[in-house]
Amino acid sequence: MTKPHDPLYEPELDGQDGELDGGPGERVAKALARAGVASRREVERLIEAGRVAINGKVLTTPAIKVKPGDFLTVDGQLVAEREPTRIFRYHKPTGLMTTHNDPKGRPTVFQTLPKDLPRLISVGRLDLNSEGLLLLTNDGELSRALETPSNAWVRRYRARAFGDTTQAKLDTLKDGVIVEGVKYGPIEVKLDKAHDKAGGGKNIWLTVSLSEGKNREVRKVLESIGLKVNRLIRMSYGPFALGALAAGQIEEVGPRVIRELLEGVVPPENMPTGDRPKFAGIANPVKAPGTDGGGDLQRRGVPRADRVLEPKAPEKPEKPVYKAGWAKPKKKVSPHAPAKGAAKPKRAPAKSIETKFIDDRKPVARSKPVTRPDGKAAPKTVDGAARRVSETSGKPMARPPARPGGARPATGRGPAPRGGPKR
């Protein structure tokens, strides 16, 4: 009877790894993956390169178990004990490789992460020219579990493509398609909008949903029906969405969310506790850690120091609405009114009663001469015409002599006698 296929099984090691099927400890690849060093596939490459050792002995095969109390090292550095599972949402910008080391020396996602984060690995990948949501975790086993199509987690993308198509043609992708000998699973594509491009041609926006996620799957499948993708944004990965994260920002998923969404996927011993994540706020790493402004933590609502915000114009207060029966608001004080405590301006002196009754411009009607009791005519009063003559000549007018007893001579404009006319 032949044994089932096991990529870790090597016949030449028969009789030396009998403890793999039982006994304490776990496989070295699994232990390093859970510790967040790398995925199982990458751990196998590390072992082949002679970079992994147990208790000082370099490993040559991954078919080895790590027992409690063993010292596991990678590149001479002791691997810390595994910590509870942590997940991060990262908005990957274009121009970054989703790898730890790039042979061509291009910048990578992990070079721009904040300095206070643990060693992380990605859940799936986004190519150099793609952007959007990238899940990062410290649990290599979880990364592998979320990548497999068996979990049926839908990846949703927004794609801008150059070309022309119809919704009926896009619906044919629901049955899957074979491109260059590679079979791709069902893909749901919805035509959102189309607009003409300068110089001819047309750009269209599409919403693409799939659950497989092979290498450059969206670009290759759409290219097979005559569409050239020139922008690709991942909007969600399963229940995790990109949300309002700006390009380059990273935010940790709360422990409570992990317990609710990943029950049965994460082992109970790896489940995080508490309600708040260790990494509070949002990091916006513009540059690589270790450089000025690189990997700094940005609290929610607090702008970065290197950003210059334009002053906002003061908002006008809205007028309050008063219901019927309410007290009326106080009247607003005019800005031109004098301040409290300031001296009031002096008013011009009031005109005398004579100036109100005497018109200097028109001659006053002459009254009849008044006779004295002795038969002589009383002297005339200085009327308006005489006053004008005196003012033009410059000589003062002589006042009439006073009557005996201090009474002035009667004039035609004197006040009426007291008591009124007799009836």
Short summary:
One of its GO terms (biological process) is enzyme-directed rRNA pseudouridine synthesis. The chain contains 8 helices and 19 strands. The chain has helices spanning 28-34, 40-48, 140-147, 167-171, 217-223, 255-261, 353-357, 384-393, and strands at 26-27, 52-54, 57-58, 65-66, 72-74, 77-78, 87-92, 121-123, 131-137, 155-162, 177-179, 182-184, 188-196, 202-210, 228-237, 240-241, 250-252, 282-283, 297-298.
Element layout with pairings:
Elements: E1 26-27, H1 28-34, H2 40-48, E2 52-54, E3 57-58, E4 65-66, E5 72-74, E6 77-78, E7 87-92, E8 121-123, E9 131-137, H3 140-147, E10 155-162, H4 167-171, E11 177-179, E12 182-184, E13 188-196, E14 202-210, H5 217-223, E15 228-237, E16 240-241, E17 250-252, H6 255-261, E18 282-283, E19 297-298, H7 353-357, H8 384-393
Helix pairs in contact: 1-2
Structural overview:
- By secondary structure, the chain is α+β, with helices and mostly antiparallel strands.
- Among the domains are: 26-78, Structural Genomics Hypothetical 15.5 Kd Protein In mrcA-pckA Intergenic Region, Chain A (Roll); 87-282, Pseudouridine synthase (2-Layer Sandwich), CATH 3.30.2350.10.
- The chain has eight helices and 19 strands.
- It has helices at residues 28-34, 40-48, 140-147, 167-171, 217-223, 255-261, 353-357, 384-393; strands spanning 26-27, 52-54, 57-58, 65-66, 72-74, 77-78, 87-92, 121-123, 131-137, 155-162, 177-179, 182-184, 188-196, 202-210, 228-237, 240-241, 250-252, 282-283, 297-298.
- Strands 7, 8, 9, 10, 13, 14, 15, 16 and 17 form a nine-stranded mixed sheet that branches. The chain has a four-stranded antiparallel sheet with strand order 3-2-5-6, with no helix packed on it.
- Strand 8 and strand 9 (131-137) form a beta hairpin.
- The radius of gyration is 49 Å and the shape is elongated.
- It starts with 25 loop residues before the first strand and ends in a 30-residue tail after the last helix.
- The model is unreliable at 1-21 and 286-309 (pLDDT under 50).
